[in-house]
Design brief:
The chain folds into 2 domains: 2-39, no CATH class; 44-119, SH3 Domains (SH3 type barrels), CATH 2.30.30.40. The protein has 2 helices and 8 strands, in the order H-H-E-E-E-E-E-E-E-E. It has helices at residues 2-17, 29-39; strands at 44-48, 52-55, 64-68, 73-77, 84-91, 94-104, 107-112, 116-119. The strands form 2 sheets. Strands 1, 4, 5, 6, 7 and 8 form a 6-stranded antiparallel sheet that branches.
Length: 120
């Protein structure tokens, strides 16, 4: 479990920084795979289906650093293609626990996948 948290943290840091990631010698293979996914993650246009807060972590209680208004688009990245698991939520008409990384209006953070439409 600890390695998984490290892997997700590495992916988050890599994507939010917008750069490549270098891993240390003690990182497990699972972490390396996620870091590789982040390094190759393409940024897509993400449009809000409803107004959604951009948060510092993948949970509803995390600090909101910005807002993606309904109908507005930001740039986001989903290194797994299905979102990264976080706190479960019931938002935008869907129960889910997947989150994606988003940048909008100078703010970067996490938004619930259910509240955005992805355009590749």
């Amino acid at each position: 479990m600890h390695i998984r948290k490290l892997a997700v943290t590495a992916v988050t840091a890599a994507v939010l920084a917008g750069g490549a990631v270098l891993t240390g010698g003690g990182v497990a293979a699972a972490a390396d795979a996620r870091v590789s996914a982040a390094a190759s993650c393409s940024y897509d246009t993400l449009t809000a289906l409803e107004s959604v807060k951009i948060r510092t972590d993948r949970k509803l209680g995390a600090t909101a650093v910005g807002l993606l208004p309904k109908g507005k688009s930001g740039r986001g990245c989903d290194p797994t293609g299905t979102g990264i698991s976080g706190q479960s939520y019931n938002l935008c008409g869907k129960k889910d626990n997947s989150w994606v990384i988003l940048s909008y209006g100078g703010h970067r953070g996490w938004v619930p996948s259910a509240c955005i439409k992805q355009w590749r």
